[in-house]
Amino acid sequence: MATQAHAPGREAASATDAVVEVRDLHKRFDGKEVLRGVSFDAVRGETLVVMGGSGSGKTVMLRHVAGLIRPTSGTIKVFGQRIESLSEEELLPIRRRMGYVFQGAALFDSLTVYENVAYPLREHSSLGEAEIHERVVHFLSLVGLGPETLDLLPSELSGGMRKRVGIARALIGEPEMLLFDEPTAGLDPTNAKMVGELIVKLRGGVCDTAIVVTHDLELAKTVADRVAILIDGRFAALGPLDAVLDSTDPAVQAFLAGDARGTA
Question: Which CATH number covers residue 23?
């Protein structure tokens, strides 16, 4: 997969461009510390890729950004607002400004493709059914799916199609930022490549800011402006894609070579 050309100076963006600001994030589950002092900014207009092995805490980190998990300590700002102590009701307007693409797509098994994608609009908007239908068809077309998929159930879709339906559902609220949890997990190389190209395509104006957590180095090479490597609950590297790929840190080198992916 060819490496994308990335905008120069993106890593030097000012703090005022930050959509997400995380400082000294710690999270413990049953006495086990999963995140051990993670700090980073995600700035408007960039794709930040967070890589790590199985169990490294990258999904836990992403769920903190979405307000789905509360930290043991540390601060999280999203769109300029501290979220770590907000109630579910207070979080709603912030969550509506972001879309979350779950690892397994998290589609409702008993709902059709149309009903799955329409669900956020039916729950959180006052749009009429005609406009909802128009938007569903539009956003499915953006991810390469036609009207013939509208009445299909998730069980009738391939893995790659389920991922794309999940992305369409995340997009339909026209969010300012997308959060992707392992978007290529379980996909064959062809479908993984397609999802990577779709994430790049979205940068063309649909949603220009994203955080992607993955173990997939080829995906990172395709979509990333900056890359963070999460090892043992901390960032072992964080910077422009090329700088991280050229890192001399032994732990980073081991991960990138594939040796650390099962143990990080």
Answer: 3.40.50.300
